[in-house]
Design a protein that fits this description.
mainly alpha, globular
Amino acid sequence: MGSLRFGVIYIVGLILSDIPSVLKHKDDYHYHSLGASGAISAVLFSYIMFYPLTTLMIFPLPIPIWAVLFGVLYLVYCYYMARNSTDHINHDAHMFGAITGVVLTIILVPGIVPHFIGQLIGRFG
């Protein structure tokens, strides 16, 4: 992918992941959100596009899980927690960062979608 494209995904992911939260809480002057977790989600989901069948281990569970399965579960969790959370974590930023990472990777890396599908078909097809 290269460092320039990586940087673009990180910076744009950082910015775009927070826009929904800013709009959602524009009138809530007591709402605060700080961090780069949306950008990290963008980078992680870009990685998943390249290596969907690599295994990840989620701390503290020592169970390897395919990256693509982790991605689906992560998005479901983020969506649910963004609607029902009281834990003061910006789950919207995580979810929109992940979506940004996938979209930007599709835009910046020609052929990534056939590569992604080919990886899955090669394993399950």
